[in-house]
Amino acid sequence: ISFEGAHFRRDIGAKALKHLKPPKVGLLVGSPSDLSQVEAAERVFQEFGVPYEVVVASAHRTPEKVRRYAEEAEARGTKVLIAGAGLSAHLPGVVAAHTTLPVIGVPVAAGPLKGVDALLSIVQMPRGVPVATVGIGNFANAALLAVEILALSEERLRRKLQNYRKNLSSG
Ligand code: RP5
């Protein structure tokens, strides 16, 4: 999809990554079963005209793909990473271990504990390797937080955020 000159895409595969225009935000999820929840974030990025990509990569099932993606993200021009996973959700922490880009973690409500397990896994990072954790399933807030980080150096986004907040208070 193309929107205001931005590029949006979903996975991808490691080879394809090299040939595509770099996304400002890289959004990873641990499983294809998480993908339906990501749409809330995609709507935010499309509204704000932020180039992003969605990648399925698992800290446990495809650890090498996660490591490579996180290590290469900054050099590709990505500014913020979002990682969402359920159950024993190590994905955001592992991503953060391989980059100094800001990482936002989203606990996904999967399994019998309905995301509380993922929330506790993601939020309790050891000192030195932070993950900014949002509420269970709140991909929209993760995306808005990413936009706020980008807006620190993009006046266009700062103005759009101000309008967005105004609309919240008038709605
Ligand atoms: C996590 O386990 C994923 O992020 C997902 O939320 C959960 C279940 O994954 P599947 O077994 O459906 O692939 O790793």
UniProtKB/TrEMBL annotation:
GO terms for molecular function: 5-(carboxyamino)imidazole ribonucleotide mutase activity; ATP binding; metal ion binding; phosphoribosylamine-glycine ligase activity. One of its GO terms (biological process) is purine nucleobase biosynthetic process. Substrate binds at residues 31, 34, 61. Keywords: ATP-binding, Isomerase, Ligase, Manganese, Metal-binding, Nucleotide-binding, Purine biosynthesis. Belongs to the GARS family. Belongs to the AIR carboxylase family. Class I subfamily. Catalyzes the conversion of N5-carboxyaminoimidazole ribonucleotide (N5-CAIR) to 4-carboxy-5-aminoimidazole ribonucleotide (CAIR). This is Multifunctional fusion protein. The gene is purD. The chain holds residues 407 to 577 of 577 of the full protein.
